[in-house]
Amino acid sequence: MSAAQRPSNDPLINQWMPFTANRQFHDQPRIIARAEGVYYYNTQGEKLLDGSSGLYCIPLGHGRREIREAVSRQMEVLDYAPPFQYGFPPGFQLATEVAELTPPGLNRIMFAGSGSEAVDSALKVALQYHRVRGEGARQRFVGRERGYHGVNFGGWSVGGMVNNRKAFGLGLPGALHMRHTHIKENYFEMGQGTHGADLADDLERFVNLHGADTIAACIVEPVAGSTGILPPPKGYLQRLREICTKHGILLIFDEVITGFGRTGQAFASQTFGVTPDIITMAKAITNGSIPMSAIAVREDIQQTILDAAPPNAVEFYHGYTYSAHPVACAAGLATLKIYREENTFGRVRELTPGFLEQIASFKGDPEVVDTRGFGLLGAVELAPKGKPGERGFKFLCKAFEEGLVLRCSGDSVVLAPPFAATPDQISEMIDIVRKLIRQGY
User: Fold this and answer.
1) Residue 378: strand pairing partners
2) Phi/psi of residue 60, nearest 5 degrees
3) Mean pLDDT per 10-residue interval, the chain, length 441 residues
4) Where are the beta strands (DSSP E) in 72-129?
5) With contact defined as beta carbons under 8 Å apart, do 258 and 224 qualify?
6) What does the buried/exposed string (b/e) look like for 327-355 if buried means 16 or more CB atoms within 10 Å of the residue's CB?
7) What is the Cα–Cα distance from 290 to 284, expressed in whole angstroms?
8) pLDDT at 35
9) Which helix (H) or strand (E) holds 143?
10) Cα–Cα–Cα angle for 118, 418, 413, rounded to 5 degrees
11) How far apart are CA 38 and CA 403, in angstroms?
């Protein structure tokens, strides 16, 4: 039924849903009514396993009392204050605690409201940093095919997912894209593949073609998430770091998905032993309870920007109404406290081997063309049926009916279980996926 044919009192008609097949949803809605622990519940009260940690943002499980109470207390004390030219204690405290988790030197924290906002903030920091140093010609950004950096103009311009780009014009001028790292030599190889480190040399090729003095920054996800979980080949991130350092290009790691424990350390940059110049983060910073994001910037980058401005002048003309929102900060502080007290990142390291072993067990199934995984991120790529993505979408819909909420990227079935899940609950997620594949979905 088309929107024009629907009655005006249809309860689904007024919300334009994001990244959703709205017309299909209106005909076959998938409504989530409540959540607790690692479960959602539909409108009939039936349990649904949360196989994707919300959108990679609720690692501690749903309904954490500690976060709820912290938010309530903050609402009673200070619900909002303007972040431009004024400050409030929760913002400074959260920045300090985030800086204790980030790699050494990346200790200047700027808050925003979403991963998309964090990416655009990082890109603008890079531009201004080079400009105040007398290198204003550095205006190009280098992203990667199949990269995802949010949906704001800067983010999708450096991103490389075609459906996120093709309807919206040319984007930022001068955005370049390296090749992606999903190569056949690494199919069915869990963790980091042994082939493809040389793909990082695409950045060197752009330097040779355009000149290093025109490139501001290179931005990549340490593990490409939204495109279907693509771990970096061994040596790839190290090679990017070498090239960036050699040519004065800032390296930005988009850790909106991997930040706060998904790879077993606070940040994937620590897991891989590669330190960027800027990190973006969001999602798990508040356990998904209230929208929030941040960037961590190298101390000397911030100081260079501050020192270039006249006394009493605003140094960086950027920010958002909800930057360091007091209630979001309270949620973030409560979340980080749980991470510390429950050794959450250590739990990820304990769960990872069994999880990846189960993802790898799909190898040999004639319906499966690849398996990939790193940390508590896994993907089972199905042989296409019909147009690209058609099988994946049908799989997602059927999984909901079978009691599992997950992500599908194209024809890749993606699992990112909450850190709070038990091994048995993770196995149950895997069992549902296996059952549906055997049924031909």
Assistant:
1) 373, 415
2) -85, 0
3) 60 94 94 98 97 98 98 98 97 98 98 98 98 98 98 97 94 96 97 98 98 98 97 98 98 98 98 98 98 98 98 97 98 98 98 98 97 98 96 98 97 98 98 97 96
4) 108-112
5) no
6) bbbbbbbbbbebbeeeebbebbbebbeeb
7) 10
8) 98
9) strand 140-144
10) 85
11) 12
Q: Cα–chain-centroid distance for residue 387?
A: 26
Answer yes or no: are the C-beta atoms of 402 and 291 closer than 8 Å: no
Residue 11 is predicted with a pLDDT of 87
Q: What are phi and psi of 37, to 5 degrees?
A: 60, -125
Please state, in angstroms and rounded to a whole number, the distance separating the CA atoms of residues 126 and 297. Answer: 10
Per the CB < 8 A criterion, the answer to whether 437 and 365 are in contact is: yes
Domains of the chain: 31-60+343-438 (3.90.1150.10), 67-341 (3.40.640.10)
List 40's β-bridge partners, or say none.
Answer: 35, 48
- Asked if 71 and 78 count as a contact pair (C-beta separation under 8 A), the reply is no
d(CA 177, CA 436): 36
Q: Confirm if 57 and 284 have CB atoms less than 8 A apart.
A: yes
In the chain, the amino acid numbered 229 is: I
**Maximum pairwise Cα distance, the chain:** 68
**What is the model's pTM?**
0.96
Q: Strands across the sheet with 47-50, in order?
A: 32-36, 39-42, 47-50, 404-405
Name residue 79's amino acid.
D
Burial class (CB in 10 A: 0-12, 13-18, 19+), 207: buried
C-alpha closest to that of 265 among 102, 97, 62, 96: 102
